[in-house]
Amino acid sequence: MEKEVKKYWKGLDELEGKTLLTGEFVSTPLREEQEQQVHREHNDGKTAERREFLKLMGASLAMLGASACTRRPVEKIVPYVKKPEELTPGIANWYASTCQECSASCGVLVKTREGRPIKFEGNVHHPFSQGGLCARGQASVLNLYDPDRLKHPVRSARKAEKTPLLWDELDQDLVKKLKHLQQTGGNLRVLTGEILSPSTNKLIGDFLSGFKNSKHVVYEPLNAEEVMLANELTYGRGVVPHYRLDRANVVLSFGADFLGNWLSSVELSKGFSKTRKLHSPKTMSKFIAFESLVTLTGTNADERHSIKSGDEYKAALALASELVVNMGKTRYAGDSLLGTFLKKYDPKSIALELGVDAAVFKKYAHELWDARGRSVVFGGGYSVKGAAGLALEVATNFLNSALENEGNTVDGAVNYTFEKNSTKALVELISEMDAGKVDVLLVYKTNPAYSLPPVLGFEKALAKVKTIVAFSTHLDETARLADVALASHHDLENWGDANPKSGFYSIQQPTISPLAQTRSFEDSLLQLGRKLSLGGVFLAASNWHEYLKENWKETIYRRYNIVAPFALFWESVLREGFFDGVASEGMRGLASTKSRSFNVNALVSFSYPKSLSASTLVLYPNIAQHDGRTANNSWLQELPDPVTKITWDNYLSVSASYAKAQNLSDGDIVKVKVGEQTLELPVYIQPGQNDKTVAMALGYGRQAAGRVGTGVGVNGFVFAAQGQKLLEYSNLSFSLEKTGRTYVLASTQKHHSLEGRPIVREATLKEFQQNSKAGNEEIEHDMTLWKPYEYKGYRWGMAIDLNACTGCGACVMACQAENNVPVVGRDFVRTGREMHWMRIDRYYAGNSSSPEVVHQPMICQHCENAPCETVCPVLATMHDHEGLNQQIYNRCVGTRYCSNNCPYKVRRFNWFTFTDVPTPMQLVYNPDITVRTRGIMEKCTFCIQRIREVKDKAKDFNRLVQDGEIKTACEQSCPTDAIVFGNVNDKESRVTKLSQNPRGYRVLSELNTKPSVTYLTKIRNKA
């Protein structure tokens, strides 16, 4: 009996056999209709002005600086008389530092050229991120050159008077008010986001100690508060444990997007991928997901179950009931109180209620028990927050303890040191403000006027504070409500440190002088402290750099009894980028020797909130925008969502069944109401989403982000509700009504069709164990029009493991930053004209309610028999002697024949001049790469500039390039090491071995193009 051929589809239109957009040059009725609608919207009111700006000014670098009000970089027209020792023109300098885009604090290397930072890369020596870097981390270098950054302090921002202020004048004014506080015992409050810098936290404490009535309140809109509270209830200590996925044979997630943007996604992706690769032996871990949304993590599950938002807790306890009550396993099997509690969650009854197969709980309980001590169970992450999230975290803590994961794959000793974010303390602060009891409020690294729901009354209370001082890089929603907005440094202009895990410390060092009249938050506190005569450290340290060094000397150098002199220790930290105190104590690589004792009473006495309605709304952060702090970064705005492939907007995500019941279609604009708040946004029908759950992404709808991010999408934070202990982002009741209007979302997914061809190949683990070539029936062709070329030296190739690739998009962003790839703006994306050289195609298989998902990176395949080369009339695209398909820009005349003839659709045409912008907007450009102009074709070059750089270095030493010495931008940043580049002629190279792997295949090999990119089949650990 022949095996049934699996059919893949990109979207519901393709599944239903409707006409798709099939390329940027092909006209179809659907494309013409969409282009007409885009044209109508483009000329409609104020929105059109911003979109027109993006088109004319080049969105990719529209934020890179308006020269009128910035300090120009020093330009030397005379050669150095005495060249700085550390600077060689044309040669990059690298600085070890710390990424500050999220609380993970990954180690990075900052690439600078002639004194300007142009690229972030992961630090391969960092023990946690291990060289990987997420998309947001890659894009953060662009924020440095944002022209909408504050250039100087601003007075009376609250009154819309943006009067420039001198720092000395400002300091005198603030010192008077703060001295008055000291004398009268008035209330001083410092409101900050999550700060993982031990030195900054110490400085805040030192500063506040000079005031009788002062307090530091932390507010981070998306945090791990539920995890910390659950650990405090169940283990007696409110920490976020360290998860060791590299040791897990079975991973179970109840909605946690740990591969996307929860906790430390790069580190967790690294660990996860190590158990998923199948080079040898033929084993891999198993990943099971229960979730309401379709998260990036869920798309990588071997077995995924769609359940209603809010039912994750029931699913977790049904599994616990199967383990403890039905199977009689775990150390808790004899606990009568627990047994009585768990019997209420009978697996068969819960399965029926959740709409899943009743056999799955028994099956998973056995698999987890067989893998006890080598499994991990995750809670809801950002998709199940509030009271429901806290309850779920308590339940998953119990499962990890019952499965003996505590002290093995779940380590509460070497834990994340995320700062405790207290909703209770925030609510108390707002009450104080509303009562007029706060005299001076200092705000740093947080934007509550945007991210807090109106129900809390923050803005109303803020108006009653006597003096508000905002330390900010932008005049954002909160800073514009302040009396004084102090222009702060970008992280690349400032010193700093981080303590992301217990015993581990990393350094942040500046790589460029301040571009404007800005000052760091820390230097501001030190200046004020000296003028207030606070004494102590404020007299000892003349600046923040000195304070930082002294703190490291006192709290790290002496604590760990470092033998070397402090000067040498400090130099080594700057060189390496971190100090690993855990490794120095001999604990690195070892989990806690003692597992924590679980408090059963915390589980059985927990009051779980019931669902309020038949369908619920979930607010979640997507990978690009997160909480909206980088909304003015156009690289991130145009980065396709890993699942939906939509850019530039948020939307209401619904299932196909829900859309049918409500008579909704893609793009229908609906009015959504939660409580007293109403928003209008377009509908997107998401295959695999639960029928009783709708969702929308946070981080959009900024009103003071800058020229790129202001007004993009709608602000979902207004729908959040105030719970008893936490803010509620999920399990929200809502109403919905159609407006009768439609909107074309900017999606990159449906521009090309598979047309039934085997682009993706996959098999199950059992099939692979029986046959290494399972699912990979290669089609060979002997006939060719090309004469074979003998490559006597190097021949470059690439291998991509579909089993390791999670589809996170880090490679797309790395390619953009490395190769000066422009952003084109929403309207051009909507008509199929995005410019990314690298894309990640997302394919569905199966039905629309529970499809399987595969992610496939797609770049120029550098075909040996390249179809593009035969049709180019001017030889602008041609092969070189090392197997690269080159693009000669100054030959190209823009016929576009090559793109029409490319079966992979990976060539990009410059319809307009997206990068022709004035100085200093080009400061982020990589000078090793040509900046392309209008009317020419461009595409992936395998980072030829990196190839040449390493080859030149090898030539200086009269040797060949070693395997792994060259890393393309996409390979270098990949958190899962799914991409390998190298010399195919080297028989011992990794890329050669992978290309000869039985799982290896070439896309569209039946066309006999002979690509230089090998893909390894997707293997699923399922029946």
Notes on the protein architecture:
The chain is an alpha/beta fold. Residues 20-30, 42-77 and 589-593 have low confidence and may be disordered. The strands form 14 sheets. Strands 6-5-17-16-15-7-8 form a 7-stranded mixed β-sheet, sandwiched between helices. It has a 4-stranded parallel β-sheet with strand order 12-11-10-13. Helix 9 (296-299) links the parallel strand 11 and strand 12. It has 5 domains: 8-48 and 750-1020, Alpha-Beta Plaits (2-Layer Sandwich), CATH 3.30.70; 93-143, ADC-like domains (N-terminal domain of TfIIb, Single Sheet), CATH 2.20.25.90; 154-223 and 420-576, Rossmann fold; 225-416, Dimethylsulfoxide Reductase, domain 2 (3-Layer(aba) Sandwich); 616-747, Barwin-like endoglucanases, CATH 2.40.40. Helix 7 packs across helix 14 (387-402).
Keywords summarizing the entry:
single chain; 1023 residues; alpha/beta; Alpha-Beta Plaits; N-terminal domain of TfIIb; Rossmann fold; 5 domains; seven-stranded mixed sheet; four-stranded parallel sheet; 42 strands; 28% helix
